[in-house]
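Supplementary Note 3. Input sequence used for the single-chain structure prediction.
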Amino acid sequence: MKKPFIITSITLCIFILSACAGKPIKLKAGSQPQKMELCVDFAREMSGEHKLLHLDAVNTFIGQYNAKDSHYQLAPCVTGEEKTVRLTIQSTRYVPPKEQAMYVLVSTLGVAYLVSGGGIGFAWFGTNTTTLGVTLSDDIASSNKTIYRHFSSSPYFKELKAVKNKHMKQFQAFMFELFEELEQSENMISQPQVAG
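The predicted structure, written as C-alpha cells, is reproduced below.
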C-alpha cells in the first residue's frame, strides 16, 4: 500500500521541479560573440564582505573558464554595454551554524517518529540560496527580459566561513552551466533547419 504512494509522490516531485525550471537564455540569431564581458550588480544593499565574495567568485570563474578550451573568451566588466552577460544578485542567504543545528534536530525527530512506527516521518533541511537575474546586452540578446534563476548549496556541519566558500563554488558551477546554455543556444541557431 505504501509503494503506490511513494511512486506517486516521487512522480509529483519530478513534475513540480520540471515545471519550476527557468526560461532558457538565448542568444540573438547571428550575434555569434567570441568575446563577452561578465558584469555583476547587486540589487539590494549587501555588506562589503558579501559583495567581495561574489566578485572574487566571478573573477575566479573567468580565469577557470578562459583556461579551458571554451567557446567564448570572457573578461571582467569594463563598459557593460555590448556583448555583455549581466548578473544582478537579488539576494543571498546563508544558513548559520545555530540554524543548521535546529534543522538537524527537527529532521532527526521526524525520522525517529517514522522509525518508531509513527506513520509519516518528516525532515526539514535549510539551504544556502542565491536569487539572481541574468540579462544579455541588446546586441546579443534574443529577448531583453531579465531571466531570474537561483542556486543553492547544503550548509551542514560547517562553520559559516566554510559555508560561504562552498556556496561560492556553487555560484561558479552555476556560471559554467549558464555559459554552456548560451553555447547550446548559439549551436541551435547556427544549425540549418531541415524541412520535414
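Strands lie at 35-42, 73-76, 84-93, 128-136, 147-153. The domain at 30-94+127-187 is CATH 3.30.160 (Double Stranded RNA Binding Domain).
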